[in-house]
Design a protein that fits this description.
The complex is a heterodimer of chains A (230) and B (542).
Chain A (H helix, E strand, L loop, with lengths): L21 H36 L1 H10 L2 H27 L2 H31 L2 E2 L3 E2 L3 H7 L4 H37 L9 H25 L6
Antiparallel strand pairs in A: 1-2
Helix pairs in contact in A: 1-2, 1-6, 1-7, 2-6, 3-4, 3-7, 4-6, 6-7
Chain B lengths: L22 H5 L4 H29 L10 H37 L7 H23 L13 H5 L4 H28 L12 H33 L12 H35 L6 H15 L14 H29 L8 H24 L1 H7 L3 H31 L5 H28 L13 H31 L39 H8 L1
Helix pairs in contact in B: 2-3, 2-4, 2-15, 3-4, 3-6, 3-7, 3-8, 3-13, 4-6, 6-7, 7-8, 7-9, 8-9, 8-10, 8-11, 8-13, 9-10, 10-11, 11-13, 11-14, 13-14, 14-15
Classes of the chains: A mainly alpha (230), B mainly alpha (542).
Chain lengths: 230, 542
Amino acid sequence: MSDVESPLQPDHVGLAHQFEDLDQQQQSDELGIWLFLVTEIMFFGGLFASYAIYRSFYFAAFEGGSHILDARIGAVNTMVLLGSSLTMALSVRSAQTGNRRALVLFLIATMILGGVFLGVKAYEYNQKFVEHVVPGLDWAPQGEVLAHLAPGGVQHAQLYFIFYFAMTGLHAIHMVIGMGLLLWLVLRGRKGSFTPQYFAPVEVVGLYWHFVDIVWIFLFPLLYLIGGRY
Amino acid sequence: MSTATLEPRVHAPRNYLNADYGWKSWLFTLDHKRIALLYLVSITFFFIIGGSFAVLMRIQLVEPQGALVQPETYNKLFTLHGVVMIFFFLIPSIPAVLGNFLVPLMVGARDLAFPKLNLLSWYIYIVGGMFTLYSAIAGGVDTGWTFYTPYSSTYSNTQVTAVAIGVFITGFSSILTGLNFIVTIHKMRAPGLTWFRLPLFIWATYATSIIMVLGTPVLAITIFLLALEHLFHVGIFSPALGGDPLLFQHLFWFYSHPAVYIMILPAMGVVSEIIACFARKRIFGYKIVAFSSVAIAVLGFLVWGHHMFVTGQSVYAGLIFSLLSFLVAIPSAVKVFNWTATLYKGSISFDAPMLYAMGFIGLFTMGGLTGLFLASLATDVHLNGTYFVVAHFHYIMVGGAVMGYLGGIHFWWPKISGRKYPNGWAALAAAIIFIGFNLTFFPQFVLGYLGMPRRYAFYPAEFQFLNVMSSAGATILGVGYLIPLIYLIWSMRYGPVAEPNPWGATGLEWQTPSPPPTENFAEIPVVTEEAYAYDEQEAAHE
């Protein structure tokens, strides 16, 4: 943030010209990311509200659609993502204590776990094409899949899968953006840009990453666990 | 920049305008004041585009059978007029231009909290604007600015996707601007500048930012679902496929009603500043006026259902929405009464900004009161979908928001440009705009009451007289808008040089040179008095 030069710039690493001191900057950065997360809640909120309405309209169809998904894969992915939240929290901790090596290692671990999650997600998406349950692109459920969907109405099951793809898709896009931010942190962290006094970027990306995890914590039961299957 | 202070090779004092030259110094600037000017130029461009669509519509409606275009084209004209004016002019107008320029100056900061985000928001706005312009060139869009489903998602074969992407993208510009303002107002106020010493423009901008941050993401997801349905022909909002078109309207108005307050609240903030300055008095009931902005922002989120009284929404929901809509009238009326009370026994001078502010109060009052007709369940059944609605929201958006915007531009122009404009011309333009506006839109109240539906390319012959009046008024209004464009541009080069505080106003923005230096203040000011300390100022003179 220090590329804005001003004759008034104090001699502080990481302090942008518009702030008087690092404390004011840190507080602003934190308020900024929390506000951003509020906008994210409203963004996903509209989607969750629409999901809730259609689920109450067409519960049987949503239950049928849910049974096509493999909840075991979803559960494993949930654990993977929770693990990445842990490593992310450890990254922030390492930045605070000024442990550059641990910071970079934990950031990379977070990226690896995020990558595993996205890989599993890609496998699941592929399965949907195999089962022909992709609304708009490949919608022709047959055999056992059709038998699952039929009781609730195949047409309405399409609504379930629209929400499945819209919700997990937007979540995955957020993950990809998060991975990009993590890479940026790794590159800056290796150069030693962060100090125990200045680590706001790590904290901000950390909050974002946790938020994306929390979205998944809601998505998993809403999409995978409809109806008392287990 | 850092070496500039060492070599005094320029005679004119350094300010944000002459700090650097060349297109790169503008397109890559992180200075909130320069970004405000980028917005000023871009929204003026979109205002002219949106205005041209309106001109064509008014020409069309001079004759009952339509004087100019085919009905299909007319549908595209009113759609693009609405989309461009709302998303690309009104919503960014005061916040992105005046807010960007003034928020850091008024709170005594060197810049907004996130200058890069601020520049990014302008680029996002431009990209969104390009998509919308593309859609206009590639055949237009005919759904109305409300994009009601399933027409927009299933049946319309026009450029719905391009416009949807444009509106979706531009929303993020609004979100980032609001976020930047909230953080700046919370964290970057000068020493001594407590919440109740803030200018009311800041309170209004703060309330506006809350709406931008909370409402716009819901519009984004709604547009996203709409585009999904349009592209993949799946039934999210299409009843034929099990979707619910009312859900679209609920989600759409959850943003788009509060969006009305995004347009009007900043204008109210501008008017508070102008009234206090030109009546030489502290605003009557400062705290009440400040909180009324927040109240409007909060209540604004609870009234969206009044757009849906005749759509099959439950009657009981309609009752509640009607009641809540009436509640919004309270903080709105508080403002009007308090401005009027401020004028009482004030030493009033009628410079151009004051004329706009006076115009705002009159027109906003009419727009607000006619809103109550529409918030009443029974009268709304008669008036819904008629020109009465068109007249009502133009009194708020044009009579209110645009008057406030122009008043603000005239009030702060000496600060922005460092030059003064000819006051006589400015007063004349304000009068022409006021007359032209009323002549354009008052007949539409009557037309609507008589039953003329909106969004039609033709109408029964008995409505012609009032329609011709409206079109004649639009011509006068157009001339009124052209005059400031000319003399403001003229003043940048030929206007007399403005002193730091030409109006003798209070507020930190007037305590720094005109135009301000890049870093706003040589030293961060310390605030020791309340806002609008005009009484103390007078006492000091005597």
